Amino acid sequence: MLCDNGATVRGDRARNNYMKNIGILAICLIAVCSAVVWQGGAGVFAPVPVSVPPGDRDQAIDEHRVPDAALVSTEPARMARVFDAVEVFGTARANESIVLTVPVAQTIRGVRFDDGDVVDAGTVLVELTNERDDAVLAAVRANLVAAENQERRITELVNLGLSAESALEFARSRTAAAKARLDTVLTRLDDRLVRAPFRGLLRDRGVSPGSRVTPTSAIATLHDISAVTADFMVPENLLPIVESGTIVFARTESAGDRELAGVVDTVNARVDPVMRAFAVRARIKNSDDILFPGAELTIRVVTKERRGLVVSENAVLQSGGRYYVYLVDADGIARQRDIEIVSRQFRVVEVGTGLVPGDRVVIEGMTRLRDGTPVRSGVDAGDGITG
């Protein structure tokens, strides 16, 4: 029995040692597989290799370190006409204005315009009521329809050989007479229509449908705004310079950045003893109807004209008494460039030194820029030298 118990103990120990060896072997296999995965880079623990040839690895690292280029808008410095001018204020007036009336006393049937409309010449503005003429018009139109139908029937009979040519000629003459009668009535009825005599702006509408009007009744005022005039005062020291034909530029707040060119029409050489200024009237071409009678105008009266190098005023920055722009070089790098300002025109700056024609300057996106910042142009205001 003792011998059997000893054998049993030895057998258990052998089995335990065998299982222990199996466990150690499994742990070793797991460790080896993990090492293979780590070295092979097939798992999440391994860095992904960069597909860059050995010779280009340094260049790729350098490019990765370059900051993103700032998005900007640029324009070229350009030669243009610049002016020395004195700025004054005036009020726009219509080139011509008339009060519209009716030819006869009648009741208004319809009004075909609203106050503030811009209408073309010949546009019907008001239609008057005339019941008697309406009845006459209906009768002559009915006669014309009957004559045309009779002519059509006789034409068919002649084509069939069942009627004489003389009957057809008579039918044609009746149709022509009916048309002439209709034209006569329509011409007379045209007096019931009030039309615009020229293209213009309608103001001060004074009638409504159903109103009784006479030849002295004002329907509306029609203003010719193809051009406007402006009266203003100019300082007396400019009397030797300002004359008929002198260039002026006018703008109004409602027109935004638009400036319209015009010329001095008349000059009153008498100097006002209180204001120490003289009166001038200018005529301004009103492109696109952007100026209206009564609008306040800011007017630049040109005293000297020349050519100069200009950039948009948005491009110019100031630091203390220093003025500078950001110039974009051929490599796409923004460089600060000090400039000298000769004059400020409307929305542009005349540059004395610091730039040459064709230099590209930044006009939008300067907030992210420093000297040496790489940039890319999203919007380009144009190329070449103009003016």
Observed structural traits:
single chain; alpha+beta; Elongation Factor Tu (Ef-tu), domain 3; 4 domains; six-stranded antiparallel beta barrel; 27% helix; disordered N terminus; disordered C terminus
Secondary-structure blueprint:
Blueprint: H1 2-40, H2 57-65, E1 70-76, E2 78-100, E3 106-111, E4 118-119, E5 124-129, H3 131-160, H4 165-189, E6 193-195, E7 200-203, E8 212-213, E9 220-235, E10 247-251, E11 260-272, E12 277-285, E13 296-312, E14 317-319, E15 322-328, E16 334-338, E17 341-344, E18 348-351, E19 360-364, E20 375-380
Parallel strand pairs: 1-20
Antiparallel strand pairs: 1-19, 2-9, 2-13, 3-5, 3-8, 4-7, 5-6, 7-9, 9-12, 10-11, 10-13, 11-12, 13-18, 14-15, 15-16, 17-18
Helix pairs in contact: 3-4
Q: How would you briefly describe this protein structure?
A:
With 387 residues, the protein is an alpha+beta fold. The chain is built from four helices and 20 strands. The chain has four domains: 1-49; 70-81 and 308-380, Beta Barrel (conserved putative lor/sdh protein from methanococcus maripaludis s2 fold); 84-94 and 220-306, Elongation Factor Tu (Ef-tu), domain 3 (Beta Barrel), CATH 2.40.30.170; 102-213, no CATH class.
